[in-house]
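Contributing new records

If you add data, match the layout below exactly. Sequence lines come first and carry their own label; structure lines follow with theirs. Keep one chain per record. Anything else will be rejected by the validation script.
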Amino acid sequence: MFEVFGVPLVALTGQIMLGIVNGAFYAVLSLGLAIIFGIVKVVNFAHGAFFMMGAFLSFLLLDYFGIGYWGAIFIAPLIVGLLGIVAERLLLRRIYGLDPIYGLLLTFGMVLMIEGGFTVAFGSSGQIYTAPDQLRGTVNLGFMFMPIYRLFVIGAAVAICVATWLMIERTTMGAKLRAATERPQLTQAFGINVPLLMTLTYGGGVALAALAGVLAAPIQNVSPSMGSELVVIVFAIVVIGGLGSISGAAITGLLLGVVEGLTKVFYSEASTVIVFLIMAIVLLIRPAGLFGREEG
């Protein structure tokens, strides 16, 4: 049996694959968070709550309306995105231009209300949501048997990240968003509705979080606290990648998922803190993050 530093190669490759799966969730969540901060300039602490809402909606659509996974993967993000638009229009718009701490406190309050409401309605224990029949079973990769659904998650996450990056960097809408971020008053003077762009950006960012929740539902128990367990790590990933960097968030999320998986093999005690250790080192060396732009 082949070994790497005393660790069987099978165990090592298995953890790498599991790390890629976790990294896929980190990438999609970090992507939405980076978009919101980069364009709306709000530290969206409620991102994990919207992730949870996406998972719960997929469960409710199946349990109450008989709508399966393939319907939920489109409907749940749409509903959560619309709720995000309502939240932006009623709440977040009132704090634009203020110190970022106001946005952090407001979205933290949203977390408490959303999670509290779901806990009262469904309890704190998790709900089981099974993968669709087409994605059940395993496939032999040669070094391990990998669940088909987890391979689907990896492919879906990569496709989502690439499509989002292309939309922002290669389309007219993306150009307008970037212009509104850097020169909002000048962009408004050219007849572009900047407030509407802000609203749609926030709705799109939380829809990405909900989409990640739908992808996570068949893997994790669907519970009110499932988003809180991830949001702190996702914030650290966005900081490492560079606040506001779209590509940086996605790439860093995937890479740190793999690093976390490898840490579980070689020194499992450090797996819960390795992301924050890397964040501290990156901030010491490059405060703007790995892919962020240094302020002039």
